[in-house]
Design brief:
By secondary structure, the protein is an alpha/beta fold. 40% of the residues lie in helices and 15% in strands. It has one domain: 3-Layer(aba) Sandwich (Rossmann fold). It has helices spanning 20-30, 42-52, 68-81, 109-130, 156-176, 202-212, 221-232; strands at residues 8-12, 34-39, 59-62, 87-90, 138-144, 181-188, 243-246. The N and C termini lie far apart (43 Å). The relative contact order is 0.15.
Amino acid sequence: MGLLDGRVALVMGVANRWSIAWGIARAFHREGARCALTYLGEREEENVRKLAGELRDPVVLRCDVTRDQDLDALREELRRQVGQVDVVVHSIAYARTEDLRGRFLDTSRDGYLVAQNVSAYSLVACARAVAPLMPQGGSILTLTYLASERVFPNYNVMAVCKAALEACVRYLAYELGERGIRVNAISAGPIRTASARAVAGLSDFIEAYKERAPLRRTVDQEEVGDAAVFLASSLSRGVTGQILFVDAGYHIMGV
């Protein structure tokens, strides 16, 4: 028996095979969960449907998290196809390329608002939309990064978004706790995803990371997926409002 047998997990943010969200979906599948995946638009749909073919009885739905009408439609389609949801994974973030290079000081007002809307506020919007499908409680989890509390040059506006995201985790954990819904985040080490490659200097940072992290390496999708299984399962039933570091110990270092 798997740790997630009989549970339904909504995984938002799968873009391709290298996505952290896909690593989580595979781990959920391994532990017995039925997964519903979302895609943003036509460009992403083919990739997501192809990946979903590797899962048991998957559900694939379109959703743009910046549109409340899409989130409302997502809730109703989930209600129709799966009835209720036990786990929600929010692995969604976006900032314009020009705002991930150069100086944070030069971030445009519009670029800042776009990044915050997609990367932080969307967790609130998703939780509000899907919580009605979690009458027996459940687990909501998102993905953050250490740049929320330390300066990583070139991470810029995304670092500020992650700080806001972590604050959202705490407030949602408080407000949804009385309904038995737990809200947590995983802070993963750097992984070579398509979105991470937009950050200038990523390759050099990963090499330096391996030298400084206590385990002398970085992490992979599978390790993040296993941590997500823990947060999604009853093993973490007393855990909420937390940031779980899966980063080979890098966050404990002073340099």
